[in-house]
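Continuing the series of single-chain predictions for the mutant panel. This is the parent chain; the variants come on the following pages.
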Amino acid sequence: MKDKAMSNDSILILNVDDNDGARYVKTRILQGAGFKVVEAANGTDGLAMARQMLPALVLLDVKLPDINGIEVCRRIKDDPLTAGVLVLQTSAALTGRDDKIRGLEGGADNYLAAPIEADELVANVNALLRLQRTQTELRNSEERFRQLTENIEDVFWMFDLQSRALLYVNNAYDSFWGRAAAQLQHNTGDWLNAIHADDRIAVSARWEALRRGEHYDEEYRLLLADGTLRWVRDRAFQVRDAGHTPYRIARISSDITQRKTMEGLLRAADDNKNDFLATLAHELRNPLSPIRNAVALMGVADASEVEVHRKARQVIMRQVGHLARLVDDLLDVARISEGKLALRLEDLELRSVLEPALETARPLMESRGHTLTVVAPPHPIRLHGDPVRLAQAVGNLLHNAAKFTVVGGAIRLEVTSPAPDRVRIAVRDNGIGISTENLPRIFDMFAQGASAHDRAHDGLGIGLSLVSKMVQMHGGTVYAESAGTDQGSSFVIELPVLAAPGAEPAAPAPAGGGVPVVTGLNRLLVVDDNVDSGEVLGDLLKLLGYEVRLAHDAASAMASARAFEPHAMILDIGMPHVDGYALARMLRADSALSRIRLIAHTGFGSAQDREKTAAAGFDFHLVKPAALDELQQTLRLL
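Parent structure:
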């Protein structure tokens, strides 16, 4: 009894009875059970105290002098402030079956007729309080559930299992489905009308199968009224009662549009990767095949057949240039993607951009019999930019036009000034054109149009992307125009020009091609672990008039350097065991060898690679395969 009293001492009960003796007895019984009790002798006081004190329960006699107990009960239950207060009606006079029914219908939670035993009274009070606690916990649980579901972006539903009537849907439905939830009250299946027509029948069938206990986890599309397409993941399961009998269906619908978009991008990227690798393999084999054949031809042709050897050498040089171009494009893509492509900006004249661009593309145009027309204003146009990168961008457009214009076609390079502060460089052709579907994505990475009728699949699909990025880095724009397939194409670059004209820069010196005048600094040591590469380079240098020795690892290089005393060493970087960086440091640390000029000859050509070679002690950095004129120019600086 003591434990119960301790648990009940915070519970307030209002005892309303005009009979002092009866009221006293009931109060003593309840206090003995540990409850806190206050008293009222009439209905008016009882109502006032109920509003003021908000007891957990009112023990209410039916026969009161001013207001009968049934009316007092009704007013308590009708008042929002006291509607949750329990009412236990008692009566010593009105004890019939109809009296009890009238009391309960008046809002009482229970009705006891005298005589009332003490334990009966306490048991009824405790039972009502337990019921109240259960109902309160249920209401609190429902409120927590409501707050949870109303504050999530997913749509939460609850359906009756048998009738499929909608019992609940949260506020997310209206915005998610693009339809009013009120329509579901009139037609529970209205949600199906928003599903894309191609998905609706399958989803409806799976939803009906859920009633039979089948698994339901569907992904489908919603087509909203404004044309928006939204992907949904829809999951549902049967809710079971305490006896494990299913009676409801709970359902949650999530927006997976972003996930589906990412999956599509990943699939496209994977397709692009596969296309790119296939194209790369094709493009690498294209030049390798004539190189191999040219080398084989030179091997079997008699030394006296000068013209055969000359043509074979020309084939090899052209195809090596093509390979170098592919590698350069790949490296530029990587640098731009990583934000590592640095521009070497200077004031320049547009001719210093157009001339090298035309020079790189002219051989392909001539081989295909194209007619090239160049139209440019006679006055100088001055820019601020990187001449090499701008020439590369224009050259890519010219090369692209040559690839996709059939033999005998026409290509036009046209320079105009659409505004005083802008210059427009347009490359137009009458080639295969660009389809309407391809035009919007022509500057995307790995994008490919159709091939010219007389050419196989050509290029890596990164040239135009590089043009776009390089032009953007110069503050310009580039766009493409085409009336469609076989209607020709136009690629247009627009760049800002310098407002104030300055002195024209000196014309660039023509690329060297002759044999250098070899000074007294003519002893060279070539170090490369690739024997073929080292020997071919050595033979070339000997033909140019240099005295050459070869080494293929760091140890033999150090020994040769001491014995041969070269004026310069051409070092490969990627050698096993001791690489070129370490070898350079060893040479610089040796007082007898530290004055030798060091030239890095390596496949690593990024800005970071150049910084590393400089830090290791190299004087020059050449990227494999170094062009002959670049090698000669470097040797002149020894």
